[in-house]
Design a protein that fits this description.
six-stranded antiparallel β-sheet, 156 residues, alpha+beta, 6 strands
C-alpha cells in the first residue's frame, strides 16, 4: 500500500512539473505557428487560432494536445492543427494585440509548458462576443495560468 501511495505521488509530481515547469525552452528563438481549427461541439462555435510554439518539434509534438487541454473547460472540443513557419501579416498583428475586424481571445503564456495563442471568432457578431467574453475567459483560465483576455473586433 505504501508503495502505491509513493508511486501515485511521483506520478502527480511528474505531471505537475511537466505542465508547469517543462523542459522546453522558455525563450522562443525559432517560432513555429500552429494554425488551429476548433469546433466547440455544444454551441457549434468555430474558432480559428494561432499558437506560437517554441520550434517545429514543439509544434508537431504538442500543438493539438496543448490547445485541446487548454480549451477543455469550454466543453467538448474538436481540434485540428497544422504547423507553419510563418503566418500572414494580418495574423501577426494578433500577437501585438492589434484590433482586427473580428473579436478574438488572447492567451499569453504563464508557465514554461504554456504557449501564446490567439483565437478568432468568425461568423459571430462582436457584440455577442463582448457580452460573453467574461464567461469565456473565466472558463479558459480554469486550465491556463497565463493572461487571458478579449480584444474587441472593429466590426459588429
Amino acid at each position: 500500500m505504501k508503495g502505491i501511495i509513493i508511486a501515485l505521488a511521483l506520478i502527480a509530481a511528474g505531471y505537475y512539473i511537466y505542465h508547469n515547469h517543462s523542459p522546453f525552452q522558455t525563450t522562443v528563438t525559432d517560432p513555429y505557428y500552429a494554425e488551429i481549427r476548433i469546433n466547440l461541439r455544444a454551441s457549434n462555435v468555430q474558432l480559428v487560432g494561432f499558437g506560437k510554439m517554441n520550434s517545429l518539434a514543439d509544434c508537431t509534438a504538442r500543438a493539438a494536445l496543448v490547445w485541446a487541454n487548454t480549451l477543455k473547460t469550454l466543453g467538448e472540443v474538436e481540434v485540428k492543427s497544422d504547423c507553419k513557419k510563418e503566418i500572414s501579416e494580418r495574423y501577426r498583428k494578433l500577437f501585438v494585440n492589434e484590433k482586427i475586424p473580428a473579436s478574438y481571445i488572447a492567451l499569453d503564456r504563464g508557465t514554461d509548458g504554456e504557449r501564446d495563442a490567439r483565437f478568432i471568432f468568425y461568423g459571430i457578431p462582436s457584440s455577442y462576443v463582448s457580452r460573453e467574453c467574461q464567461t469565456i475567459t473565466q472558463r479558459i483560465r480554469q486550465g491556463y495560468k497565463g493572461k487571458v483576455f478579449c480584444v474587441q473586433g472593429s466590426v459588429g
